[in-house]
Amino acid sequence: MSKAFKYLPIFLTVFFIQGCSLLSHYDQMIALKRVGDSQDEIEGDLRRQKDSFNELKADIENKHLKRGSSKSHILFRYGQPVFCKEAKNKTLIRQVCIYRLSGSNLDAGLIYLYFDGKNKLDLWDIIK
Hints:
Layout: H1 3-23, H2 26-61, H3 71-78, E1 83-88, E2 93-100, E3 110-115, E4 121-127
Antiparallel strand pairs: 1-2, 2-3, 3-4
């Protein structure tokens, strides 16, 4: 009988004992795995939001964004804004939607899109 077969029972015993010790922490390991999975989802969402923001900014700078585009088209193309609210003036009622570069401070960039009463794009502004 070779030496490898002599030590096989010892190796298997140590291996199974070590495996049994991991079973007592199974719940904690599953919780850590879920946290890791959710972190991956968060990073993916942040990446998509950053890409959408950069696409919107590039379209504005390259004059591809057109006045009169519908709000639904803008939301479909660039995703949900961070914030939307109605802004009333003495003569105008507009809705302003704010897009922000995700995962950065407020100084990194804001884009304001203004929609008229018919939900058509009226104005935009990039705050750097």
